[in-house]
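Aim 2 progress update. The chain analyzed this quarter is reproduced below.
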Amino acid sequence: MKKKTLILFISIIGLLSISLLIYGTGRPNYGDTHDSSGCHDNFGGYTISSTVPVTTTVNNVSYTIFNVTATGSNLFVQAYPGANDNDKFIILPTSSRIVDASGDDLDPNPNAITIAFNVTPTLVQNSYTLFILAGNNLTGSPPFAYVEIIIGAPPKFDLLSKIYDHLGLYLGLPALLLISIATVLVLVNENKFVKVHGILSGSAWILTAINLSAALIKISPNAWFSVYPLIYHVPHIILGFIGLISGFLSMFFGIAAERKPAKITGYIALLSWWAAFFLGYFLNNNLLLL
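Predicted structure tokens:
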């Protein structure tokens, strides 16, 4: 029975890992070049492009204007809250969805939208990146195209910021590996590897606790009240939290020598963390709408 369980466990983890390698690195195609003035994306039948942003300063207040043009059926365009540096701007005409043929659409033709954006930064920094998407307004999770508009000097590489932006991967993946190895060892020989299992699982729990805390801090207050974080970010955090509580209970039952509840809660933690990791990975690669 143990051997069958071990084979099943390794097969599931292997399938998830292969899926991650095959599908988890997919990104919309930008062609041969990708810059702030020529960024153009075509995905799922939707296209979006922007003009070169022009910044003007009046009375010590800087604002930037640019046009965004998109095409597609049942079309909407949105400067999505919480993405990139969007929350650092006052965005006009709006940061909500702008649908085809609405008052802010400058293109009278159907299945095409042109919007004149006027954005004013609320924080002072050398460079900003705006994220604007176009997609199907009639579906809950539409295929979408997006454009990233750089305002100011091109951003310099910042190692600490890069690490912080990918903290979920850097903490989540080691935690998953630790708890997966711990599970395999206890399935192979529970009596022999019980201490190693406890050390590895405990380390995974600590990494996940740090990861969850960082995720709660990283998400901006504005992003919590927009639709897609509620669909994706919140379940991602909830899954991590379920795994955290289950992992703690598993440790508690293990210390009390209650093997059956320890195993059940341990498997719940393992599955919850794998689900949270994949959801978070897809989000960060724009495979799911932010």
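The longest strand covers residues 61-71. The chain has two domains: 2-24+161-284, 40-153. These observations will guide the mutagenesis experiments scheduled for the next reporting period.
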